[in-house]
């Protein structure tokens, strides 16, 4: 991609974006100020994504999506979720946050904005990986995280060599989705492993840094990803394996869209075989992944300088895969009532924080959810079903993730990747 016509990425504007984002979500800020702040945030997002570049293709891809992610978080906390419906279990103060002094409200906004997974808050996902014990010594935690970061750097280097050696990833005129199956599979594996390693590496270094400085404690830093062994379905992958950075704003935005725009009733998670419920749940999934797809357009646009459509197509397709799995799971349960597949997800409006009801359990689940999630009412499928699921998930991503990679191949970002990777580490450091 020719980036000579684009400005160098502006760190000042990016920092200003963070500052305005935090100020705009302080409880008690006037609606007029919120709208002005959102307009400014939108302009900064547009400018950084469409007019600037870091000169590092992988960094552009990540930054573009991260900027729109933060814009969605700010939009949710400004206009959808009322601050009095959010509970921080680490906060010893009682009463409504909107009635506290400005200093406390500003600190509350900072803690919320910089904690996208909601660790320690009522909206924390009940499906996060297990966290370090409170008795974990800080120095030991820091050493382990730094060691793991080094391992992830090595893993990313291996993935880059794999990508640079793959003609399906280095032939600009041939999209990966049109390559031979073995090159397509290797390309998807290399791309996925590289992203997995880099996100993990940054998370490990960030957690080690803040704990070493005494700003946080080890138990506040569960792993960013869950175990791959839980990915026996596409739904399980997005719910329990992949990071949950977008969970809160996407659920809130989707629920808002469904209730205020589509005028549908509250989403239900019960197994109801009526057409209305099937259509509603399908529309909910499609809307959620539509929003996620739009967010990832930011990274794609910052990388290639246009709307490639690959990321959007990939994420929208995920809703179709999950609905197919639900149909198969329902059919299986119908013919095998004694053996039910675990479908115990639960994303309720209490977690969105927009219906005025506070969750009261420290893992982020409501009491209704605890009865379904904490007390496991459905067993995991037997090992043979999970093995079939692993094969299905692998084949699904080999097919669908290639569409997301296609617009990246002509940019040459997978050619001579080691040099690009070394430059990325220099930029991060």
TrEMBL record:
GO terms for molecular function: O-acyltransferase activity. Residues 221-317 form the Wax synthase domain. Keywords: Membrane, Transferase, Transmembrane, Transmembrane helix. The keyword Nucleus does not apply. It holds the Pfam family MBOAT_2. It comes from the Eukaryota. One of its GO terms (cellular component) is membrane. The keyword Repressor does not apply. It is a multi-pass membrane protein. Residues 346-375 are annotated as: Disordered. Its main location: membrane. Pathway: Secondary metabolite biosynthesis. It is found in: Membrane. GO terms for biological process: lipid metabolic process. The chain crosses the membrane at residues 9-26, 139-161, 181-199, 283-304, 383-405. Residues 349-358 have a biased composition (Polar residues). PANTHER family: LONG-CHAIN-ALCOHOL O-FATTY-ACYLTRANSFERASE 3-RELATED, OS04G0481900 PROTEIN. Belongs to the wax synthase family. This is Wax synthase domain-containing protein. It comes from Hebeloma cylindrosporum. The lineage of its organism: Eukaryota, Fungi, Dikarya, Basidiomycota, Agaricomycotina.
């Amino acid at each position: 991609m020719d980036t000579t016509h684009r400005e160098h990425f502006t760190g000042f504007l990016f920092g200003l974006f963070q500052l305005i984002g935090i100020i705009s979500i302080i409880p008690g800020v006037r609606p007029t100020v919120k709208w002005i702040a959102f307009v400014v945030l939108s302009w900064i997002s547009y400018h950084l994504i469409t007019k600037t570049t870091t000169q590092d293709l992988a960094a552009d891809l990540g930054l573009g999506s991260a900027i729109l992610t933060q814009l969605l978080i700010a939009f949710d906390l400004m206009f959808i979720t009322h601050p009095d419906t959010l509970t921080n279990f680490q906060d010893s103060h009682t009463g409504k946050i909107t009635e506290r002094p400005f200093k406390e409200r500003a600190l509350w906004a900072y803690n919320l904005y910089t904690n996208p997974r909601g660790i320690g808050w009522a909206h924390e996902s009940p499906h996060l990986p297990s966290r370090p014990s409170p008795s974990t010594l800080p120095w030991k935690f820091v050493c382990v995280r730094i060691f793991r970061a080094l391992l992830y750097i090595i893993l990313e280097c291996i993935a880059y060599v794999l990508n640079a050696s793959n003609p399906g990833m280095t032939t600009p005129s041939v999209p990966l989705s049109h390559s031979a199956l073995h090159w397509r599979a290797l390309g998807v594996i290399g791309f996925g492993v590289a992203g997995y390693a880099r996100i993990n590496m940054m998370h490990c270094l960030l957690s080690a840094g803040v704990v070493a400085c005494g700003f946080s404690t080890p138990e506040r830093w569960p792993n960013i990803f869950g175990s791959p062994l839980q990915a026996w379905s596409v739904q399980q992958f997005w719910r329990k394996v992949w990071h949950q950075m977008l969970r809160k704003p996407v659920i809130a935005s989707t629920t808002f869209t469904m209730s205020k725009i589509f005028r549908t009733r509250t989403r239900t998670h019960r197994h109801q075989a009526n057409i209305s419920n099937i259509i509603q749940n399908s529309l909910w999934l499609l809307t959620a992944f539509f929003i996620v797809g739009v967010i990832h357009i930011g990274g794609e646009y910052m990388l290639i300088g246009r709307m490639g459509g690959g990321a959007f197509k990939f994420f929208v397709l995920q809703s179709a895969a999950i609905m197919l799995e639900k149909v198969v799971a329902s059919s299986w349960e119908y013919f095998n009532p004694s053996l039910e597949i675990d479908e115990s997800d639960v994303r309720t409006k209490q977690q969105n924080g927009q219906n005025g009801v506070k969750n009261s359990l420290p893992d982020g689940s409501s009491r209704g959810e605890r009865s379904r999630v904490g007390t496991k009412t459905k067993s995991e499928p037997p090992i043979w079903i999970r093995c079939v699921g692993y094969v299905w998930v692998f084949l699904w991503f080999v097919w669908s993730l290639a569409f997301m990679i296609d617009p990246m191949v002509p940019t040459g970002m997978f050619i001579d990747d080691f040099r690009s990777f070394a430059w990325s580490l220099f930029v991060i450091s």
